[in-house]
């Protein structure tokens, strides 16, 4: 891969083919993002230019059908791409990973006619997806008005909000317990994104709240509904392990970026301890040991993540064959990698300061952003409950009941 590639080069070169080609393209995107990642994190501006970069590079349409301009790639490749981008910018990797899930949501939940139409339009028009689907809030109410559904309510979080072209809405059909998903233009009348995301990490994810005030959607756009009746499949519930693998991979990507950035700092700026007897920091035994320890842990977690991604792809390849058991066993495996990725990423991103030294805490270095990003998102749902899923499976052969978090 050329390390001097620029966005302009993408217009004159053929689209990547195969997993490695797309990972190389993601690395080029990461190289662009890395040039000012710390400064952009401090500024916290809406990442319009960064999303444009994802579109121009082709990463946005990675999973889209080739005949409509998409990359035609699979989920294991998408996870690796997310991980690569996260090395430079965890926020933009989260946006991209969530986009992949919401783009795929039509296939998870919708009828074949619906998802084929959505995926074709998304690839042709390079839609960037956001989602107003935070399950911890009171559900948005959906009223049935004949041929139209009307969504009304509020969500605390809506990742992608102001940089998205389309938004996935979710609510409960009034008077029932039936959930309804629909994709709407992000500039729809009644959809208001609030500029209130002000957290210590993942600062560029546009994850603020959203007000949904009478957003009207044709019944035909209600994912998975035929004649106002939902057509359930076990595959519908694969959204949780799929997005949890997105989480694990951008945690690991952030950790890898932290380790690479720290290693460069150690080689070029760190000073050896004056009483240690070594001329260079890279010769300090404790520094060498720490890098070896952290790298071994990261490599092991990455290998586990890749293995489980391949297992998940087999379910995506044959959606109608997914059973409660195969889905449950996959969820347990995903829970295991989520727990490992969380622990490894937190350890890497805080221990890098032990091997870079006091001067590395300068705000200008921006090393703190790696820990802040991981710490912020790993609170999404308690990792103890992920370990519990694994433990219950081992001890009693119990598979997790599908919920918004399992």
TrEMBL record:
Any one GO molecular-function label of the UniProt entry: monooxygenase activity
KW Oxidoreductase (keyword) present: yes
Record-annotated Acyl-CoA dehydrogenase/oxidase N-terminal domain positions: 29-117
PANTHER family in UniProt: ACYL-COA DEHYDROGENASE, ISOVALERYL-COA DEHYDROGENASE, MITOCHONDRIAL-RELATED
Keywords carried by this UniProt record: Flavoprotein, Monooxygenase, Oxidoreductase
InterPro entries linked to this entry: Acyl-CoA_DH_C, Acyl-CoA_Oxase/DH_mid-dom_sf, AcylCo_DH-like_C, AcylCoA_DH/ox_N, AcylCoA_DH/ox_N_sf, AcylCoA_DH/oxidase_NM_dom_sf
Gene Ontology biological process terms, A to Z: L-leucine catabolic process
UniProt KW Flavoprotein keyword: yes
Domain of life: Bacteria
Pfam family for this entry, one: Acyl-CoA_dh_N
UniProt-recorded name of the protein: Monooxygenase
